[in-house]
Amino acid sequence: MLTSQRKKTILEWLARDGQVLAAPLAVQFGVSEDTIRRDLRELAAEGSLQRVHGGALPASPAVASFSKRRTLESSGKRAIGMAAAAMIEPGQIVIIDGGTTCAELVRHIPSSLAATVVTHSPTIAVALAEHPSIEVIVIGGRLYKHSIVTVGAGAIEAMSHIHADLYFMGVTGVHPTAGLSTGDLEEAYVKRALAARSAETVVLATTEKLNAASAYVIGDVTLAQTVVVERSTDAGLIAPLEAAGVSVVRA
């Protein structure tokens, strides 16, 4: 079998099964594990999959720039934002992450709601600047341009003084075994620190982020108490999350 044919088959099996393992692939193709690992490295370099110990998982497609992602209209994303906004109670202290799904959340916060929003996203802060009853606390640091959020030691130090009721987390991957993940190491640190400062973490996940993984792990899926997904999400993608004890809300 040609290398190109083998890679095509690997991707087909990955799409079918949700993961592939190097050792069984080597047996099935009659090649060495080193050959399979080389195939997986090359496919990962192309962005076709995410390598993990012993094999590979589907790669998250949520890798475009913030400006490009913001121009992509999504009824599912709007529904998730609306459902998340409805979770905020008057008087609460709420942490809102960066990213385009969290931007949809902010658009649906009622003008009458009085609460405090803590954010490390300049975009989120500006979106709330004209909200009459929301107090906005902005966490500073180095700007991670993909998600337009601040990261780094200064940001993590600022978070240590916060006790929040809710944290709305944006991710690029939600996988039952690989956990919650994102595409930047420092951003993963910041998200984990924010989750530690909140009584409840709510992950906002459009369908393409489910059963997918990115390079940097934020934590196990159980770091989140709730995951908000699109109403049309396949039950097979939700069942492993619920089995892990995570509440799933269909928006």
Characterise the protein shown here.
With 251 residues, this protein is α/β, with parallel strands linked by helices. The protein has 10 helices and 15 strands. The protein has helices at residues 3-17, 22-29, 33-45, 66-71, 75-85, 100-107, 122-127, 153-159, 185-196, 235-243, and strands at residues 20-21, 49-52, 55-58, 93-96, 115-119, 134-138, 142-144, 149-151, 164-170, 173-175, 179-182, 198-204, 216-219, 226-229, 247-250.
How do the strands and helices of this protein lay out in sequence?
Elements lengths: L2 H15 L2 E2 H8 L3 H13 L3 E4 L2 E4 L7 H6 L3 H11 L7 E4 L3 H8 L7 E5 L2 H6 L6 E5 L3 E3 L4 E3 L1 H7 L4 E7 L2 E3 L3 E4 L2 H12 L1 E7 L11 E4 L6 E4 L5 H9 L3 E4 L1
Parallel strand pairs: 4-5, 4-9, 5-6, 9-12, 12-14, 14-15
Antiparallel strand pairs: 1-3, 2-3, 7-8, 10-11, 11-13
Helix pairs in contact: 2-3, 5-6
Pfam families: DeoRC (PF00455), HTH_DeoR (PF08220)
InterPro entries: Carb_Metab_HTH_regulators, DeoR-like_C, DeoR_HTH, NagB/RpiA_transferase-like, Tscrpt_reg_HTH_DeoR_CS, WH-like_DNA-bd_sf, WH_DNA-bd_sf
GO molecular function: DNA binding; DNA-binding transcription factor activity
Total count of helical runs of at least 4 residues: 10
What is the first-to-last residue Cα distance? 45 Å
β-strand number: 15
Largest sheet: 7 strands, parallel
Q: Could you say what the CATH topology of the largest domain is called?
A: Rossmann fold
Question: Uncertain runs with pLDDT below 50, 5 residues or more?
Answer: none
Q: Can you identify the CATH class of the largest domain?
A: Alpha Beta
At CATH level 2, the architecture of the largest domain is: 3-Layer(aba) Sandwich
Fraction of residues in H or I helices: 25-40%
Q: Shape, please? A: elongated
Helix and strand element order: HEHHEEHHEHEHEEEHEEEHEEEHE
Strand coverage percent = 25-35%
The chain-level mean pLDDT equals 91
Number of domains: 2
Radius of gyration from CA coordinates: 19 Å
Keywords: DNA-binding, Repressor, Transcription, Transcription regulation
Organism: Paraburkholderia fynbosensis
GO molecular function, one term: DNA binding
Pfam family, one: HTH_DeoR
